[in-house]
Amino acid sequence: MLTSASKILLSVVLLGILVFALAPGNWTPAWVVNHDKFSHMVVFFILAFLLKFSFPKMPVFMQLSLLIAFAFTIELLQYLFFNRGFSVIDLIYDLIGIGLFVVLKGSVPFLVEFIPYKRGTASFKANE
User: What pLDDT sits at residue 80?
Assistant: First the structure.
């Protein structure tokens, strides 16, 4: 059930990101513009989280490859079609957001998947 809900949420978030990323610059809300680099980190952290829980058996390498390809594709589309420009700095902040998830998922119990609870133990295990 959690996987289905996370897949729906992942789809909604991906669509929202595309709308914001490909819309003309004057359509972007001020709170996003004023915190552009922070927004890139947070959005890609959330994407990494949703991708992990939407497809828990997908290899980490594949998840990272998809996220990096999506970040690069957004920047390329902005450059080619929407007169917004390709930003290496934005791409770096996207990668920082992805990297933060990778680092934190091993140290914050909420970010890793639970294995079945055994009486008397509190075990967590990341499916890598």
Answer: 84
